[in-house]
């Protein structure tokens, strides 16, 4: 399965041989009253373009914090967070918002579809941020729905779809703008085993055959095993799947 870029954002600042994600000595903490809680400490991580990475770990291990840093939803206390060629620590909140709309697609455990809109209209929503004619938007929406196997459900509203189909619509919406990075936060958390397997396989197809870089947070070892590489995060430290601590090196 192959697809041309759905949206062109001009010249790509990141050459094909450069990592998409580079984190260097990243620290992040939060205050709870007078207590400072360290979540990520001196974290280094490199992820090559086109990889499908699963991130596991217990609650409170820093998984969501790491995802928020990669998506520009939060900022590090110190260190470098470089994604798609930009150091997010150097961008203002307004600049991060613009950067996020052009570079990142999000998939959540809750699908966040608009109930009164059809599947096609939900997928189309992010395209309205760009200057694009109605005919081109419709063409791209049809292509995206076809890629997730829902070409025949375009006119259906979320209430007429199964949970697995709703998540497929959410995934189509996430990549409709041709983002460089897709961040998936527990995308199979509300699905049964069969639908969970189909969703993780779909994410694998987007990575293997379309070249999307995907970082997926999950508690499900079966979902994690579908990724090209598993990373375990525990108290801000990455470990191998077997539990051996190691430096956060390049993910190939």
What characteristics describe this protein?
5-stranded mixed beta sheet; 6-stranded mixed beta sheet; 29% helix; 252 residues; alpha/beta; disordered C terminus
Q: In summary, what is this structure?
A:
With 252 residues, the chain is α/β, with parallel strands linked by helices.
Report on the structure:
With 252 residues, the chain is an alpha/beta fold. It contains 7 helices and 11 strands. It has helices spanning 63-70, 93-103, 119-124, 134-147, 163-175, 193-208, 221-224, and strands spanning 21-32, 35-47, 52-56, 78-83, 86-87, 104-108, 181-185, 213-217, 229-234, 237-239, 250-251. A 6-stranded mixed beta sheet has the order 6-7-8-3-9-10, with helices on both faces.
> How do the strands of the widest beta sheet line up side by side?
6-7-8-3-9-10
Apparent shape:
globular
Tally of helical segments: 7
Number of strands: 11
Major β-sheet, in short? 6 strands, mixed
Q: State the separation between the terminal residues, measured CA to CA.
A: 22 Å
Radius of gyration: 18 Å
